[in-house]
Task: structure prediction
Amino acid sequence: MPEGDTVYRTAAHLDAALAGQVLTGCDIRVPKFATVDLTGERVDDVVSRGKHILMRVGEFSIHSHLKMEGSWHIYQPQTRWRKPAWQARAVLTTAEHTAVGFELGLLEVVRRAEEESIVGYLGPDLLGAGWDAAEAERRLAREPGREVAVALLDQRNLAGLGNVFANELCFLRGVLPSRPVGEVARLDAVVALAHRLITANRDRVERTTTGDTRPGKQVWVYNRAGQPCRRCGTAIQSGRLGANDLALRDAYWCPYCQT
Ligand SMILES: [Zn+2]
Result:
């Protein structure tokens, strides 16, 4: 599952390739928008909002979300795609590049004026220019009984964190992911660390929360159930949290280092 750092980088690459260019081809392979053709329109910019990507083209905004398996690739003309064509949901062509969105979890075309109705609910964007730590903390604290890892994943509180960062943040702050938000002593420190971690990974291809980018060394607890804690050697535990649509996210923690 791509997290905000990956999405930010994806939008930056798309922006570098497409901004200022006129579309010479526009193929949206989603039934509802299959007739939308923005050929001849200029791409103004491509930005990320949390884990959402907005591609502003003429009067419209192509909104995509990578969800579980999605990705955008940028190709030179005549280059072979690295994924099968049947997985392509959007193919946008300019004189110099072809941008292909594969297996996008969400793809829609809206009027630019409607962007707010799509991303307006998001909390402060961890990688946005207007990042507001105090507002993120205030939003997290609204539901003091909620498990902290689940609250961190809720994009209405702060936008950009996925399952990897939520688990790693809890470990780094010594807090069990199931600890109610209201019992977390330093919520401000959690928020500050979230910002620092995701910013440090923004321009990095190999995500790391340990500072070590070698394979197998990049994270403290995520996806390491049964393996020894890197600090104390205790076996990492895993389980599920939450009672709504976030319930299926896996939680990982060290029962000794986190309380
Ligand atoms: Zn430990």
Q: What stands out?
A: DSSP finds six helices and ten strands in the chain. The pocket of zinc ion is lined by residues 229, 231-232, 234, 254, 256-257 (CB under 6 Å).
